[in-house]
Design a protein that fits this description.
The complex is a heterodimer of chains A (50) and B (311). By secondary structure, chain A is mainly α. Chain A is built from one helix and no strands. By secondary structure, chain B is mainly α. Chain B has two domains: 141 residues, Tetracycline Repressor, domain 2 (Orthogonal Bundle); 137 residues. Helix content of chain B is 75%, strand content 0%. In chain B, helix 2 crosses helix 8, helix 6 packs antiparallel against helix 8 and helix 12 packs antiparallel against helix 13. Chain B is flat, with a radius of gyration of 21 Å. The chains are: A mainly alpha (50), B mainly alpha (311). The interface between A and B is medium-sized, with 25 and 22 residues.
């Protein structure tokens, strides 16, 4: 039989806080990677365009 | 009903109670803000202007790298943080974050920040950031901090590197100007931390950290503080003397440095019966203002010079 544990309200609240922060951080990272890639792939970037 | 496994370390069987704020605290936001500021100064003062988005990415990566080294420092130092009043409410000694969580968090962010800086900015800046994290975590935290009173003297190199990383992010090289900025922070670190150590001697003693007042005594520490204050005040004027900054910056740096030496002089005159250590507390407070003001003056000077050159 699998032992299960019911999280407390404090644990659920803390997990929600961590989940939201992680989602926001990952979304920000994706946005940064996308736009920086656009900038670096722009013509002339590697020939003094930076 | 959630199915959960036993957590890391001595965690209980439930979910972690660490909030996002606890993980943010692991990054030492106040230290990170000083790192970001000095890195921005190095980046802006450099004789090259990267694309604003590349510059922003560089600053973010440096900030995250600094935060990661803070998290790894807290992971390793949890035992002594638990002993000192100043640090016992940090997330690990307070029991809100498990050591394994902090270690994984710090290692992940270290790798992410260095790779991001390398891929999107340049690999010299990334290598310097990786070296900074290694130096702070391994050389300072794991080795020097508990073994020698020169811990913060040598370890100060880690805190002094951000303007060099900023400069390297902008130019792909390391200039003499950025090395002077490095020297200013490097020489500023001992009087800053020894001023703190003077009025926290008991705390450091309890934790077994060999800070200078605990090992060499209060008088020797006061003399060394004064010596370093003199040298850092002179070094901060060097950019103006070498022609890297304007005379206006030189005057500002000289004034700020004179005040730094005066505060250190008051510490030198402090008597043994002075239990309040007011002069040491004043020097500690002023040293923070001093570093910020010197870098703000250098930044302002660089911006004015660039605007004047473009006009």
């Amino acid at each position: 039989m699998i032992e299960t544990i019911k999280p407390t309200d404090a644990e659920l609240k803390a997990r929600r806080s961590r989940s939201i922060a992680l989602a926001l951080a990952l979304a920000a990272f994706v946005v940064i990677v996308y736009f920086v890639s656009m900038v670096r792939m722009a013509p002339g970037f590697f020939h003094g365009g930076s | 009903m959630a199915l959960v496994e036993k957590g890391l370390g001595d965690a209980g069987p439930g979910l972690s109670q660490a909030t996002a704020g606890d993980f943010l605290a692991l990054l030492k936001p106040r230290v990170m803000s000083l790192v970001v500021f000095t890195a921005v100064v190095g980046l802006v003062a450099a004789p090259a202007a990267p694309h604003p988005l590349i510059a922003l990415t560089a600053v973010l990566a440096i900030a995250v790298g600094a935060g990661a080294s803070g998290a790894l420092n807290m992971w390793y130092d949890a035992d002594i943080d638990r002993v000192m009043r100043r640090t016992r409410s940090r997330p690990i000694p307070a029991g809100r974050v498990q050591p394994g969580e902090a270690l994984a968090f710090g290692l992940t962010l270290s790798a992410l920040s260095v790779m991001t800086l390398g891929v999107f900015v340049n690999w010299l800046a990334a290598a310097l950031l990786a070296f900074t994290i290694f130096f702070y975590v391994v050389v300072y935290t794991m080795w020097l901090k508990r073994s020698t009173p020169q811990n913060i003297v040598i370890g100060g190199a880690a805190g002094a590197l951000p303007p060099v990383i900023g400069w390297a992010a902008a130019t792909g090289s390391v200039g003499l100007e950025s090395l002077i900025l490095f020297l200013v922070i490097f020489l500023w670190t001992p009087p800053h931390f020894w001023a703190l150590a003077l009025f926290k001697t008991d705390e450091y003693g309890k934790a077994g950290i060999p800070m200078m007042p605990n090992v060499a005594g209060v008088d020797s520490t006061k003399r060394q503080i004064f010596g370093y204050a003199l040298v850092v005040a002179l070094t901060a004027v060097a950019p103006a003397l070498l022609g890297y900054a304007s005379p206006a910056y030189g005057v500002a740096a000289a004034g700020l440095g004179a005040a730094f030496v005066w505060y250190a002089w008051k510490v030198l005159l402090m008597t043994e019966s002075d239990r309040s250590m007011a002069a040491a507390k004043a020097l500690f407070g002023y040293s923070l203002l001093y570093l910020f003001a010197i870098f703000a003056a250098y930044l302002g000077d660089a911006v004015v010079a660039r605007v004047a050159a473009g006009a």
